[in-house]
Amino acid sequence: MSGIRWGILLIVAMTTVAHADYSATPLKDSTTANTKDSWWSNDKITHAVVGFSLAGFSTGIAKYAFDNSREGSVIIGISIPVSFGLFKEWYDWKHPETHQASYKDLVAGFIGAAIGTALVIALSP
Question: Among candidates 103, 77, 75, which has minimal Cα distance to 90?
Fold first, then answer.
């Protein structure tokens, strides 16, 4: 892999690590039952950052390590975080006593995934 490719993956990794301590704190948001589901809660930021990170890594690995086309890399890059998001919201829906499913979480994750994928593709040589 060339230097620019490693640089792109490093940027995505640094974003993930920088957010790890923040996202590990208890959140008062839609992950806890009977709470307000605001578009601007810490939970939505966490969903967006996780979507961004997973998509960035997935897109970068698909593009650079497995030499997929741009289109194939985009499909892989978006599919992985969206699948994780759907599973997480399904889990929340199945456990209403401790979790609250939210379409806003899915939207935030998708937006993060779209940005992560777009960034890797835009910066690729």
Answer: 103
The tens digit of pLDDT for each residue in 73-90 reads 999 999 999 999 999 999
CA dist., res. 118 & res. 122, Å (int): 6
Identify how many contiguous H helices and E strands the chain contains and give both numbers. Answer: 4, 0
Residue 48 · residue 111 · CB < 8 Å:
yes
Provide the sign of the torsion angle of the four alpha carbons 9, 10, 15, 18, taken in this order. positive
Torsion sign, CA atoms 27, 32, 36, 38: positive
Residue type, 84: F
Contact 73, 67 (CB under 8 A): no
* pLDDT tens by residue, 16-75: 555 554 444 444 444 444 457 888 888 899 999 999 999 999 999 999 899 999 999 999
Supply 96's token pair. 């209403």
The answer to whether the CB of 100 falls within 8 A of the CB of 35 is yes
